């Protein structure tokens, strides 16, 4: 059993701590839970892992896009909604996204982006 909002808050804390350690700052993470039934049948650690990875990407993208010295970094938002059959968890940020010209190389074996100095 898994409480997605609880997992989201824990993943947010972990990703934020990492972001602070590597950049000295971190955008706020807003978790919005739109579901009444807070427990689902899923492995919590799997959602925690996936969400932490997505949040690390988002935090890094926002800091890169706005600069570590930005005084009011725009928040990263996690929205959790229950549909008729599924729970959806959406992570959104204002880091500028992935340029269309780079999408293709992301599916290659040795993507170019891996050469970048990655910190989170
Ligand atoms: N939220 C995001 N905003 C902008 N670019 C992103 C985002 N998420 C992923 N990316 C881009 O996609 C690349 C691949 O992400 P990922 O598979 O998590 O590997 P890594 O984080 O180790 O680079 C990142 O290096 C980054 O360039
Ligand atoms: Mg990543």
How would you describe the overall organization of this protein?
The protein has about 120 residues and is an alpha+beta fold. The protein has a single domain (about 5-115), classed as Histidine kinase-like ATPase, C-terminal domain (Heat Shock Protein 90), CATH 3.30.565. Helices cover about 40% and strands about 15% of the residues. The chain has three helices and three strands. The protein has helices at about 5-25, 45-65, 100-105, and strands at about 30-35, 75-80, 85-90. A three-stranded mixed β-sheet has the order 1-2-3, covered by helices on one side. α1 (about 5-25) runs parallel beside α2. The longest helix is centred in the middle third of the chain and has 23 residues, at about 45-65. It is globular, with a radius of gyration of 15 Å. The mean pLDDT is about 90. The structure holds adenosine-5'-diphosphate and magnesium ion. Magnesium ion binds near residues 56 and 57.
Q: Give the N-to-C terminal Cα separation.
A: 29 Å
- CATH fold-level assignment: Heat Shock Protein 90
Residue share in helices? 25-40%
> How many strands in all?
3
Assigned CATH class: Alpha Beta
Beta-strand content bin = 15-25%
Largest sheet descriptor: 3 strands, mixed
What is the topology, as strand order, of the major beta sheet?
A: 1-2-3
Name the poorly predicted regions: none
CATH architecture: 2-Layer Sandwich
Q: What do the pLDDT scores average to?
A: 90
Give the overall shape: globular
CATH superfamily: Histidine kinase-like ATPase, C-terminal domain
């Amino acid at each position: 059993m898994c409480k997605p909002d609880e997992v989201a808050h824990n993943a947010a804390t972990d990703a934020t701590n990492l972001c602070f350690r590597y950049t000295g700052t971190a955008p706020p993470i807003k978790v919005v839970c739109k579901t009444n039934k807070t427990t689902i049948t899923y492995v919590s650690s799997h959602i925690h892992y996936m969400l932490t990875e997505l949040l690390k990407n988002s935090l890094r993208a926002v800091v890169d896009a706005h600069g570590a010295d930005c005084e009011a970094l725009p928040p990263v938002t996690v929205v959790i909604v229950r549909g008729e059959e599924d729970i959806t968890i959406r992570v959104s940020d204002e880091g500028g996204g992935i340029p269309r010209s780079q999408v293709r190389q992301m599916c290659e074996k040795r993507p170019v982006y891996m050469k970048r100095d990655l910190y989170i």
